[in-house]
Design goal:
With about 375 residues, this protein is α/β, with parallel strands linked by helices. The protein is built from 14 helices and twelve strands. The strands form two sheets. It has a seven-stranded mixed β-sheet, with helices on both faces. The chain has a five-stranded mixed β-sheet with strand order 8-9-12-11-10, covered by helices on one side. Bound molecules: pyridoxal-5'-phosphate.
C-alpha cells in the first residue's frame, strides 16, 4: 500500500466488537485475565494499550520500520534511547541540535558519566576524528533545529558500520512523509510527535522506531521500566492527526518555499536557511535523501536593520511561540526561546545569534503569510 493509504488504514481497525471505523480510545488502565497464568494481550496500560498499539503499528509502517515505542514526549523518546547506553559511553552529535536534546545530554546524562562531542556533522573529517575507543553512537538531527543543516545520512551510516556504532536519527523536522532514515540503514529513528505527526498543536508525544528486533524489544522494555509511554488519549489524538500527515506536509512545504523565496529577496534579510532553496549549501544532498524540504524556514535579519521586538509585534499571523509543525504559523527566536538552554558560547558556536528567527510555516493562505512578513518587515 502507498503511504497515504497506510496512514489512514494501517493498524487502526481494532474494534472487533462494534467494528468502529476510528480506533476507540481505551482509557482502561488494566485488563481482565481469563484465569491464572492466562495473560491477556494487554494487561496494564504502561506496558501496553490498544489505542497506543494501533498508533505504533501505523507509525512503524510509515517510517519503514518494524517496531515503534511511543512515549509521552519527544524528550521521553530521547531519554529512553539514551538508556541503551551506560556511563563511560561516548556519543557524537551535531553542534546545532535541538536545545532540549543538548540540555538532556549535558545536564542529565553528562553528570552520570556519559560523554558527548558536539561537532559539525557536515564535515566528514571532523566526524571521523571524533570517534574514540568508547564511542557507541552517532546522533543525527537532520535537518537540524534551527539552522536546517542537512547531514549526509548514508555517509554517517557508512562510517558507523565501519566502526560498529549505532546510528540514531531525529526525524522531527520532516516526518516520514519527506524522509525515512531507516531506509538509509539508520538503526533507530526518534521523533517528537508533538510536531508534524500530530500536527495540530494539541498533543505532546514522542516515538522511537527501529527494524531491529532486539533493539525494538529492549526499547519497549526500557520505556515500560522508565515509565515513559504515551497516554491513551494522546494516542487517540495522534491517530487522528497522522491520517492527514502527507497532505499537511505538502501544504507546509508549498507555503514554506514561497516564504523562503520572499525572504531571500528582501533587503533587510541577510540569509535564509531552507534546504529547498538552490542557495542552501546542502540543497543537492537534501534532494538526494529527502523527498521534500518541509515547512521550517529560518532566517537572519541584517544586523541593526530592524528593531526585532517591533518586527515581531507587527506580525499578525506568525505569532510568537515555541514548538512547530502545527497547522498554524509560528515564529520564534531560538536565541531567547528554544535554544536558551544552550550556554551562550555553544549557541554562538552553532551559529545561533539573536538575529536569527525560525518560522514554522503553517497551512494558511500563502499570500496572507507573505503579506504578513512583508508588512512586519516595513514594506
Ligand atoms: C528536533 C526536536 N527533537 C525533539 C524535540 C522534543 O520533543 P518534545 O517537545 O515533544 O518533548 C523537539 C522539540 O521541539 C525537537 O524540535
Amino acid at each position: 500500500m502507498g503511504f497515504k493509504t497506510d496512514a489512514i488504514q494501517n493498524g487502526v481497525y481494532i474494534d472487533k466488537t462494534f467494528q468502529s471505523v476510528t480506533t476507540p480510545m481505551y482509557a482502561s488502565t488494566t485488563y481482565f485475565f481469563a484465569g491464572l497464568g492466562e495473560m491477556p494481550q494487554f494487561d496494564y496500560t504502561r506496558s501496553g494499550n490498544p489505542t497506543r498499539w494501533a498508533l505504533e503499528q501505523n507509525l512503524a509502517k510509515l517510517e519503514g520500520g518494524k517496531h515503534a515505542t511511543l512515549t509521552a514526549t519527544g524528550m521521553g523518546a530521547i531519554t529512553t534511547v539514551l538508556f541503551l547506553f551506560r556511563p563511560g559511553d561516548h556519543i557524537i552529535a551535531g553542534k546545532d541540535i535541538y536545545g532540549g536534546t543538548y540540555r538532556l545530554f549535558e545536564l542529565v546524562f553528562g553528570p552520570l558519566g556519559y560523554e558527548f562531542s558536539f561537532i559539525d556533522m557536515g564535515n566528514p573529517d571532523e566526524l571521523r576524528a571524533a570517534v574514540r575507543p568508547n564511542t557507541r553512537a552517532i546522533w543525527i538531527e537532520t535537518p537540524s533545529n534551527p539552522l536546517l543543516n542537512v547531514t549526509d545520512i548514508a555517509a554517517v551510516v557508512a562510517l558507523a558500520r565501519e566502526r560498529n556504532l549505532l546510528t540514531i536519527a531525529d526525524n522531527t523536522f520532516l516526518s516520514p512523509w519527506f524522509q525515512r532514515p531507516l531506509e538509509f540503514g539508520v538503526a533507530i529513528v526518534v521523533e517528537s510527535m508533538t510536531k508534524y505527526i500530530n500536527g495540530h498543536s494539541d498533543v505532546i508525544g514522542g516515538a522511537i522506531v527501529t527494524n531491529n528486533d532486539d533493539l525494538g524489544a529492549r526499547l519497549k522494555e526500557l520505556s515500560n521500566c522508565l515509565g515513559t509511554p504515551l497516554a491513551a488519549f494522546d494516542s487517540f489524538l495522534v491517530l487522528r492527526g497522522i491520517k492527514t500527515l502527507a497532505y499537511r506536509m505538502e501544504g507546509h512545504q508549498k507555503n514554506a518555499l514561497a516564504v523562503a523565496r520572499f525572504l531571500e529577496r528582501h533587503p533587510r534579510i541577510a540569509r535564509v536557511y531552507y534546504p529547498g532553496l538552490e542557495s542552501h549549501p546542502h540543497h543537492e544532498l537534501a534532494k538526494r535523501q529527502m523527498s521534500g524540504f518541509g515547512g521550517m524556514v529560518s532566517f537572519a535579519v541584517r544586523e541593526n536593520a530592524l528593531d526585532l521586538s517591533a518586527f515581531v509585534g507587527r506580525l499578525r499571523i506568525f505569532r510568537l511561540a515555541e514548538s512547530l509543525g502545527g497547522v498554524e504559523s509560528l515564529i520564534c527566536q531560538p536565541w531567547s526561546m528554544t535554544h536558551l538552554s544552550m550556554p551562550e558560547d555553544a549557541r554562538l558556536r552553532a551559529g545561533i545569534t539573536p538575529w536569527i528567527f525560525r518560522l514554522s510555516v503553517g497551512l494558511e493562505e500563502t499570500d496572507d503569510l507573505v503579506a504578513d512578513l512583508a508588512t512586519a518587515l516595513g514594506d
